Structures are given as C-alpha cells and as structure tokens.
Amino acid sequence: MTTETEMWAPDEAVADAGPRPPERPRDVEAERVLVATAMQQPNVVDELGAEGFDPADITTDAYRWIWWAVEELRSDLRDGEIRWVPIARQLETWHADGRMPTRPLAESQLSELYSQAHPGAAAWYAARVTKKAVAARVVALGYDAILKGASPAFDEDADVAAIQADLDGAVRAPDDASLAAIGDLLGDSLIRAVTPPTNEQRILTGFMDLDSLFCGGWAPGQLVVIGARPAMGKSTLAADFARGAAIRNKIPTLFESLEMGKDELSDRILCAEARIPHHHLKQGVVSDADMAKAARRAPDIAAAPLWINDGALLSLPMLRGRIRNLVRTQGLRLVIVDYLQLMQAPKAESRQQAVAEISRNLKLIAKDFQITVIVLCQLNRGPEQRQEKKPMVSDLRESGAIEQDADIVILLHREDAYDKESPRAGEADLIVGKHRGGPTATITCAFQGHFARFCDMAVA
C-alpha cells in the first residue's frame, strides 16, 4: 500500500513527467480548536482515541506535537486541564533532545491557542479533521493512479488491484473497531436463540433439506464452494441456486458465467422454471402447451433481480468493482461464479498460489460486502480412481486453500454419470463435506436433466 509520505512527496523525475500533485485538503481551524480543547480537557485524548481518531491526521506539525504532549502529560495531570506552561516545557524538552524537529510554539502563542478551546465539541472538530484526512488520501491516491496509468510500465492486473486496495483502505478503521466485551454481545446471542432467521438474514437455497441443514439458507459473509467432476451438472445446480434466490425470493443475485453464454443460461432458466424440455427449446420445436407454460412463468422470470455476465475474462478487481456497484445500487446479496479455475489468475510463483489468492479474495469479498459468494470448482481425478466414485473435499483441484477459505463445501455426485443402468438413475447427492459451525450431511435430490434442473425429491 502506498504510504502517506510517498503520496505527498513524489520524486522530481516523476513529478516533472506528469501533472503536479494537488494541494492537500486540510482544516487548520478544526485542528487548532481540537488541540486547544485537548489542553483544557485532556480526557478527550482517550475518548477520541477509543473512537478511532488518529492524531497523524492533524496536518499542522506544531498542533500535532501539542496533541502528543497532552498524551504525555495527562497521566500526571489527570485532575484538571493542562495549561500552556507544562505543554511549553514538554515541547522544549523534546526539541532540545532532537525528538521534535520543528521549533515549538512559544508560551505566548500557546496561551493564545489555549483561549480558543471549545469544550464539549471535541468530537465534532475531530470528525472535521478526519474527514479532510480521508479526502487527502483519496486525492493522493487519485494522483498516484494517474501516474500509474500514464506510465509505460502500467500493469492492468497488479496496478489496478493495488489502486483498488488503496481506495478500499482510504477510510482508516480504528485498530480496535472489532473489539467488543462479551457482556455487550451476550444480549444479542440470547435474542438469536429464540428468534428464527428471516428472509432478510438468510437466502433460501431452493432445496428444503439444504435450507434446514444451513439453518434457513445461505448466510451473509459466507464463501460456498460447489465441487464436482466435469459434466456432473455444476452449472445447472448453480442456476438452480440463482433461481431459488432471485426468481422465487426476489433476492438480488449476480451470476458470473465464465463457461456458459448468457443466452444458454437464460434458456436453461426458462426450461427449469416452466418445465420445458431443454432439447426441444434448442431445436426450436417447443409445443404450444409448453409455450403456454413459458408464458405463465415469463413475467416472474423477467421481474427477477438477476444479472448475468458472460464476459470471457474475470479478474478479482473487475469482480470487486462490479459487486461494489450492485451492492450500492441494487442491494446485491448473492454472487455465483462459474467457475473458479476459469477466473483470471493474479501473478504468482505457482498456479497453486494463484488459486489460493483467488480463493482468499473471494472470501474477503463475501465478508467485506456481507454477501454470500458461491463459487464452482473443478475436482481432480480422485473420484474416478476410487471404486465407488464418490468425491471428497480433498479432491478440490489445485489448492487446499479453497477448502480452508470456504465456509461450506458441497460436492455434487451422480451415480448415473458413471453407470447408466444404476438403480439410482435420476438421483443426485449433494455431499456437504464442510460446514463451518454446523453439521455435515448428504442430501439426495432429483436430477431432471431434460428440464435442466435439480429439485427436491418431493417435487420430482
């Protein structure tokens, strides 16, 4: 990540080659009142620090050193205000021993500053200082992005990812933002103990037994991995999850299809919803009766908050940007990626490390945006080398990091894919091989390939 010093002090060769950096946004008045108030009310140093205020956001050197002097002295002078004389002595000491490079304010200047305190308004002035600091970081990152984009050495993967990461970190969260006492958390735990999750908190999978196993469906922040060998029906199952969320429950869903075109995916969704034979649609010989069924389901399908992207290339920065936009504008809650090994891999020393980077970032995206991310994944040839052919979590291809990052791993298995005469023809197993915080199980469902869908056994 670009440091603040690097942002505001580009070397002369780079600066001469492009636009000059803009003037840094700052609020000197707010800084002045804030440090004056800290001298009168030294307890605000602790209070604002607990709320995440960073004195490094104070741009005026003299004021920033005054703040640090208050921090130094408040342990000895807790009973009241810290007047300007002790502050002056502390600053002179620091300047004399070389710790403070700038010349400190004189006692007369500190006295005048002291009179400008605004007791009771420290938090408001601190917010003004922080706001300008965030603006300064954004402006600096914009200038840095201009330099990167104009450079002949511009790397669309590495540089865009770095810029995106810097922008995501422009608003600096306090180090203890996630710190909480158990006593403050216990009340909510007791409420959750007697309050079943609602559709606002969970996303129904479209399969009753899965919903029961997952306590109501997919949860925010989860990374769900669907693994299978080729031709098992991963894409069909993913489309079923999308249908269950977007068409049946009106949950905004994004389907990133790297293997199947959006027209093909649309055809499959229509066939699955209207129970139209998929091969009839592909041949253009759908009967009048089936067209009537399609007409009945078409309004609900068309109104569903489901977006499909079938771009050939999908990188992590592209995905994060698209998700950010849809979360902001459409309230996106579910993302499906078909499939992981086809994503554009970041630069890494090995393919395993690249896949691990993709996996980790997908989990971070789910957590950062509080959405559910479902990613499809190819399995290695392990199942085909075993007598019963059933897949295991260890069959996840190319990286054990996929298993580590996933909250849920579902392995899709169909016996009739290996044995056409199997007595279980038309059945499929959803093997929940990993369920963080919950039980694992094997859920049996029906595979209706002619309708391009999986469904509950009771529905079939």
Structural write-up:
Helix content is 47%, strand content 12%. The protein has 460 residues and is of the alpha/beta class. Helix 3 (28-40) runs parallel beside helix 5 and helix 3 (28-40) runs antiparallel to helix 8 (122-150). The longest helix is centred in the first third of the chain and has 29 residues, at 122-150.
Notable characteristics:
460 residues; alpha/beta; 9 strands; 12% strand; elongated; disordered N terminus
Helices and strands, with pairings:
Elements: H1 4-8, H2 12-17, H3 28-40, H4 43-50, H5 61-73, H6 84-96, H7 107-114, H8 122-150, H9 158-168, H10 182-193, H11 208-213, E1 223-228, H12 234-249, E2 253-257, H13 262-274, H14 278-283, H15 288-303, E3 306-309, H16 316-330, E4 334-338, H17 351-369, E5 372-378, H18 401-405, E6 408-413, E7 427-435, E8 441-448, E9 453-455
Parallel strand pairs: 1-5, 1-6, 2-3, 2-4, 4-5
Antiparallel strand pairs: 6-7, 7-8, 8-9
Helix pairs in contact: 3-5, 3-8, 5-6, 6-7, 8-9, 12-13, 13-15, 16-17
